[in-house]
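Hi Y.,

Following your request, here is the sequence exactly as I used it, all 484 residues.
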Amino acid sequence: MKTEIIGRLYEQNLIKQCYESPKSELVAVYGRRRVGKTFLVRSFFSEQFDFCFTGMYETARSVQLKQFGKELSKFFDCEIAAPKDWFEAFDKLQEYLLSLNKEKVVVFLDELPWMDTQKSNFLPAFSYFWNMWNSGKTSLKLFVCGSATTWMMDKLVGDKGGLYGRISRAIYLEPFSLSETELFLSTVKKVNLSRRQIIELYMVMGGIPYYLDMFDKSLPLARNIDQFFFANGAVLKNEFDFLFRSLFKESKSYKKVIEALSGKLKGMTREEILAETKLTGGGTLSEILDNLCSCDFIRKYSSIGKKEKDCMYQLTDLFSLFYLKFVQKNVSQDEHFWSNMTDSGVKAAWSGYAFEQVCLHHIWQIKNKLGIAGVLSNAYSWSARPFVDSDGTEWKGGQIDLLIDRKDDVINLCEMKFTDEEYVITDAYEKTLRERIALFKHVSKTKKAINCTFVTTYGIKSNSHSGIVNSEVTMEDLFTPKNR
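Below is the corresponding structure, written out as tokens. Let me know if you'd prefer a different format.
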């Protein structure tokens, strides 16, 4: 039935279950632009639909209805006049589907949010079509996709009106993991990269299949990145702006939040974001933050002892991080900009933080290596400013890249290091780690055991200071496929 699909085993199984069930099913596949939603559905069914239609970006209702009629004509194999509205369009679709006299019909509506233009009454017509499907002889398998994640969540999956409780299955499609990225590059692109190079590419592209598919195996990694972002006519130079325009109606406000967070990599509170962006408080900013979290652009986390209002928001989307750091304000005319950044301190600082985010995207793999994949836990960053205790003790302050706070009374204090060789812990750094652990225990008042964990590319070099490390995770462990 389906052509070769890289990864997505869990999602394919969900689609298969819905297709094989005896009843009608409405399945919503959503996720950010370029993540492979359309490819997944079309490949699974090998393009064998009883009807399919794709919405058009910022296109008038009349034009979309005309195209809908043309697509119906192709499937009906006779001329169908353009419907006057969406109610008539779905009436004609139902008439056609029932005329097939099949036990099961499969319909795919792609970019559904783009069909819902202003005053189009698309959603009421769509809801009526689905709710009134009452053929006892034919089960309807209706698959819908949309890049505008907020529309999919608010008006479809989370609808409180005619579609409330009607979605059979909502399938959120995530970017590729490192293991899926490696499989895609080796089998589809026939690209032979080391795992360290794959992580470097991942830190730029963030596991988005559409971007990875542009990789030119005849060029080295750095030259590929130059071609993507810095060469004349670079294919991804304007992708950031279009990405946000296609996902969010008030895209400028969303970009303001992302840009603010890109300048404070360890995160900002809601009040700090409000002060930085000057956006309207209340529901507007709350909605933006919720939507960005839903689309995996940012994450929200709280630390031990912190209140809800002190929750932090952190930019985690790797593509946005790279774009804002190196592309948005780049005035260089150097088409080999990235190739010439090899030994740059700026690049080293970015890669260190980007590697932290890669690790956060692979928490399951880290927990799996530590043998705690099944243990309930919360992952977050932590920091404390310098202060003086009531007894006069001075504390320097400090921050921790990642804490895994476990239900089994253990906290893994994780340090992430992206290096070219084994990481060497010096006397000074061991002292810093011990001070940091003491600070965390003192401020958090935790009674849990603290395990010092290092996540590195090639491991820790054994020396007189490496004994402080309780457990290690290397980049090889990050490539472990996740079982669901």
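Residues 190 and 217 are 7 Å apart (CA to CA).

Thanks again,
Q.
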